[in-house]
Amino acid sequence: MTDQERLRKEAPGFGLGVTVEVLSGGTEEPTVVLLHGVHGTANLEETNKYGVLARLLHREGLNVAVIETGRLRRDPESFDDRSAWAREAFAGKSYGDDLEDVLSGLEVLRQVRRGGPFWLWGFSLGGIHAVMIAGGSARRLLDARGRQWPLKGALPLDGIALSGSGIRGRDELGGEFFSLPILDSLPPEELLADGARKTTLRRALAFYGSLDGTFSEEACRKLLETLGARQKEFHRLEGVDHAFRTVDGEPSQKPLEAMVRKLLPL
Q1: Dihedrals φ, ψ of 196, to 5°?
Q2: Separate counts of helices (H) and strands (E) for the chain
Q3: 169: Cβ–Cβ under 8 A, 6 or more apart, which residues?
Q4: Per mean pLDDT, which range of 70-79, 135-144, 171-180 is the poorest?
Q5: What span, in angstroms and rounded, lies between the C-alpha atoms of 99 and 112?
Q6: How many other C-beta atoms can be found within 10 angstroms of the C-beta atom of residue 129?
Q7: What sign has the CA pseudo-torsion 104, 105, 110, 116?
Q8: Is 101:93 a contact under the CB 8 Å cutoff?
Q9: Dihedral (C-alpha) 178, 105, 151, 55: value to the nearest 10 degrees?
Q10: If you ran DSSP here, which 8-state letter would residue 240 be given?
Q11: Strand, helix or coil at 242?
């Protein structure tokens, strides 16, 4: 990979700000934008899930971008407990702040990759962000907060891919889970559903791991079914976890490879 193929930019955002990393395929192919899940870490390092996924897509000639939203610190390896990391790194951050960070990163990307088109591929909360943005609910939420819309021009969307994103989380997750930063201020289900209905996409697809403990298959199917897209596909991956990192409990890259194979023909 050459320096001409890889680009790193920064954007305004919560805490330390937003980072945008791009792998250019050197073509006019769509740019696939990877959006991480809540409290996630996303970069182009070879040890990072999104870095692995970006390289799989880049090898197929696609342009790929990874957006990491803002946080107060970038040292998850310093914590043994993920919840403790989330409370320290994202203290005081709301869902609206996180959504605004994604939009801030997309504005930088829009300037870098002028003309598009774009695919938004969101994991878990990243998929919810994608639906909110595509259907106009993101603007309604920011307007209600009295915040300026970060995008200065059109973001032509060709499609959306959702990985482990549902209309609602499992009830058994409990109050402690939903008391974490960002998760303590999720948008109402009605606002997400309204955004899904108002999308006008050519294509949308959703992936669900059969061992997902965060969203049920029904919730993920419902979100996809609600989307306004001419072509929709749902793919269930057996033995795969919510993060798409393991198969039957063993670390594996196969879930990422399987999703890329399904995405490429679209």
Answers
A1: -60, -45
A2: 9, 10
A3: 177, 178, 214, 215, 219
A4: 171-180
A5: 20
A6: 27
A7: negative
A8: no
A9: -110
A10: B
A11: coil
CA distance 87 to 73: 11
**In the numeric block, which tokens belong to residue 198?**
């108002």
Separation CA 206–CA 215 (nearest Å): 13
E strands within 44-200? 63-68, 118-123, 157-163
Tokens of 241: 């976890």
Q: In which residue are the tokens 């198969």 written? A: 247
Here the tokens at position 96 are: 């609206």
How far is residue 194's CA from residue 137's CA, in Å, rounded to a whole number? 7
What is this structure's pTM?
Answer: 0.95
Q: Helix 49-58 to helix 254-263 angle, to the nearest 10 degrees?
A: 40
Measure the CA–CA gap between 170 and 140, rounded to whole angstroms.
26
Helix (H, G, I), strand (E, B) or coil at 94: coil
Question: Is residue 16 helix, strand or coil?
Answer: coil
Over residues 8-35, the pLDDT tens digits come to: 999 999 999 999 999 987 677 789 999 9
The answer to whether the CB of 223 falls within 8 A of the CB of 162 is: yes
Query: In what side-by-side order are the strands of the sheet with 157-163?
Result: 6-11, 18-23, 63-68, 31-35, 118-123, 157-163, 201-209, 229-237
Q: Label residue 266 by pLDDT band (50, 70, 90).
A: confident
Neighbours of 211 (CB within 10 A): 15
Task: Pick the closest to residue 254 from 62, 53, 66 (CA basis).
Answer: 53
Both tokens assigned to 89? 């790194």
